[in-house]
DNA sequence: TATGAATGAGAATTCATTCAT
DNA sequence: AATGAATGAATTCTCATTCAT
């Protein structure tokens, strides 16, 4: 609009980019050392600035964790919602959800690790209420999906539903603990094999 | 129950019992709040004494974690060793290991949670070197077991070995995160169903 | 009651005494340097302990100010209430109130100084809501008293009531700024002369 | 108002004007929140600019306080000096001084508040030595004036001189705490009533 | 055995100030 | 003139640990 538009945009964009950079660094450190055990100084060191300087960009250590987690969860649910609205069968839906989950791990590994390790403790604070919401939504999604899968004859009916839910849930996310981008297997490869294990089991069967 | 047989024995036993009590409390708190986020005061509060009083029983916060973890690991490896020395086939060995693992979770849930969440960070300290040892031993045990299973024709050969290892490893231990003694399913029930899932998968097959 | 009673009481009393000691020190420092400009270290130094040690006794710097001010205000209002319930005439009530005020300054000088200098800023915080309450109660008390005095023919009717209120109010309390216990004049002497000034003025009159 | 007559003059004048604007804002904030509790950012926010920008105009936070206070004191003493050199009687001099004081409060209320609340603390710094000078000069002026008033038979001799001094001094200046320009009473109205109170007292006398 | 008062190192956070743009 | 990103010292507060009782 005005001749300053480029400049203003550039400035706003630069600021957002810096924030994102710093958040990525912070997420890395939180994930590898643990949120509580990570000092602001460690994050700042990793970012190459001084501790106090972080407070120009963020209100607090907590708000960094907040932004890291909410960004990741927003993106994850957007992906899940696309899958859920696609009208697939239970089994295909499950496959797609697992694939999206591994892509999420691929793109947000540190955030996923933080979510795994710290969300239980963080959820105590009011500002992290959305973690509980997400958790509940996650549980309903999977419970409904597994129920539907049993009804459609895709999933076994002889196993405890709660157990399956936890099995599937944990099985996917703990991979964030060891996954590294650029490793031998791509996220989609891993998703495929995880699905094979979860669906077909690891034993030799005639069907295999 | 019985009156103290001799003063010295009674005193020594009483002391050991008090230690165990306090350790159980500490483990509970470490597990639920996270080791780094748990203050000595929280532990003391949970035990109904004052912070300083814990130092009559223990050298440091670290030594509590140490004792909690090493006690658990000792017992776990003792159980594993009994299984491994029984000369079973790969598949039966795996089943027995998983069963023992769930029994371990049953008896040492807080310790398992701590092990899961904190061992990576704690292992940095020299006194926790045994955590790395245990980890390595765990990895070789499973890798060898899975390898043997494939060789014996019990386990599928078409999946990435590393992936299966991680899958099985995580799958068992994360259960400590939600397991509660005295729940609807016993530890052995859960072990059985977990094995069914891991071995046979959750999809419907003709074999099922 | 129990044989330990003396001990327990002694301990509880000792603790209360230590708190009071530290609060007196803190009040001194807050009063002389200003609350915001006083660091916890300065208070601790004045008390001969380390900064962190203060937190064994108090939750925060704010809670020290809180306790200092509320203790003082409680005592002041207790004294005022005794006067107000004595059923005196307006003029005698005023004299008694002023006398009690100077006694309050005598016993709680630092608290009064803090009240004077900082209550406006502190009152913003929720925990200091009672400062506003006290302020309002103070204003109603004086306004009613002056009104009654005018009705009884004791006080002049030709002056702005709001102005008199502020005049009397400030006149009494600012004395905390320079008063020192054990000076040439006792609190009661000062009260007497202040009353003479406020009631009769400083100019020479035939009546004087 | 008029177009800038010359560039240099216009620029210099504009700069001076901006400084004055910013100082007025700063004084407002210092007065209402307290000097120590006021951050540079609060001042900048109130001025609609960023914190760092203030340093284009001023060397430091301290220099702002310095300029605010010295400007006010210079003007006050100029007014006082005019009165003192007019050769009036003690009583008339006092009346004129009080009137000038309220006019000062009217024009420099924030500065007066800052002077009241902070000069004791600020005076510690070398650059604020003039605060002490002013204070001493103030005390001699009043002491001499009251002494003269007693000698001239205008003021009562039965009251402690030090007390009267403090009474008059405080009585005038604390008004800055509640005075607002444009209120019901003008500065001169207030001065008149204050004088009536101080000189004649608030009780009903036959002379009144 | 446990208490209670303290220590002291280090945590998160604040803020006056600087400086390149 | 003003911005925005940083600096670095200081501040409040925390907490593992000690120790006399």
Overview in brief:
The first copy, chain A, has helices at 5-33, 40-47, 54-57, 61-84, 90-122, 129-151, 161-173, 187-200.
Task: Spell out the key features of this protein.
homotetramer, about 210 residues, mainly alpha, Arc Repressor Mutant, subunit A, Tetracycline Repressor, domain 2, 2 domains, 8 helices, about 70% helix, about 0% strand, disordered N terminus, DNA-binding, transcription (chains A, B, C, D), transcription regulation (chains A, B, C, D), repressor (chains A, B, C, D)
Question: What does the model show?
Answer:
The structure is a homotetramer of 208-residue chains. By secondary structure, the first copy, chain A, is mainly α. Chain A folds into 2 domains: 1-58, Homeodomain-like (Arc Repressor Mutant, subunit A); 59-208, Orthogonal Bundle (Tetracycline Repressor, domain 2). Helices cover 71% and strands 0% of the residues of chain A. Chain A is elongated. The model of chain A is unreliable at 1-6 (pLDDT under 50). The A-B interface holds A 33-34, 36-37, 91, 117-118, 121, 153-156, 158-160, 163-164, 166-168, 170-171, 174-175, 177-178, 185, 190, 193-194, 196-208 and B 33-34, 36-37, 91, 117-118, 121, 153-156, 158-160, 163-164, 166-168, 170-171, 174-175, 177-178, 185, 190, 193-194, 196-208. Chain C binds a DNA duplex (21 and 21 nucleotides) through helix 1 and helix 3.
Most extensive chain-chain interface:
A-B, 43 and 43 residues
Question: What count of domains describes the coordinates of chain A?
Answer: 2
- What is the C-alpha radius of gyration of chain A, as a whole number of Å? 20 Å
Helical fraction of chain A: over 70%
How much β-strand is present in the residues of chain A? under 5%
